[in-house]
Design a protein that fits this description.
By secondary structure, the protein is an alpha/beta fold. The chain has one domain (8-150): Rossmann fold (3-Layer(aba) Sandwich), CATH 3.40.50. The protein has helices at 17-26, 48-56, 77-94, 112-129, 140-150, and strands at residues 8-13, 35-40, 61-66, 102-106. Strands 2-1-3-4 form a 4-stranded parallel sheet, with helices on both faces. Helix 1 packs across helix 4 and helix 2 crosses helix 3. It is globular. It starts with 7 loop residues before the first strand and ends with a helix. The structure holds FE2/S2 (inorganic) cluster.
Length: 151
């Protein structure tokens, strides 16, 4: 598809991935602008419903980025997230959307370069997969109406 730019939603734990994103910015590391970060207090807060809703609302890809295993500030939040991501991947696969559009990553707050690498990796993966099959095309009726108003 020509000029296709995916929308990738990243649910980032406040204590690690979100801080790593901040560090990546401070280090002036380049990563794609396709990433839409949602800051969460812990990946254990992510529900399967949120992951699926992100796709319903137009995401082409989604990932969850949490603390390194054993370093979750709420002890088992990232292990819970890992299980939920695995379940959501199966649901996406069964629904024909594709489980590979969803992923879980672990990183520390000091891993700014890793954050940028994951952002590039996911954007490239989703770009190669193409738009989500459930993504609604932007309303042409509305844009046609706006064009008429300009004339
Ligand atoms: Fe970071 Fe739980 S506090 S994943």
């Amino acid at each position: 598809m020509e000029n296709y730019e995916p929308t990738v939603v990243a649910f980032c734990c406040h204590f690690c991935a979100y801080t790593a994103a901040d560090l990546a910015g401070t280090m002036r590391l380049q990563y794609p602008t396709n990433i839409r970060i949602v800051r969460i207090p812990c990946t254990g807060k992510v529900d399967v419903r949120f992951l699926l809703e992100a796709f319903e609302k137009g995401a082409d890809g989604v990932y969850v980025a949490g603390c390194l295993e054993g370093d979750c500030h709420f002890l088992k939040g990232n292990f819970r997230a890992k299980k939920r991501v695995a379940l959501a991947k199966r649901i996406l696969e069964d629904a024909g959307i594709g489980g590979e559009r969803l992923e879980m990553f672990n990183m520390s707050a000091a891993m700014g370069p890793r954050f940028a690498e994951v952002a590039r990796e996911m954007t490239e993966r989703i770009r190669n997969l193409g738009p989500s099959p459930i993504k609604r095309p932007k309303s042409t009726a509305h844009s046609a109406e706006r064009k008429e108003q300009r004339i």
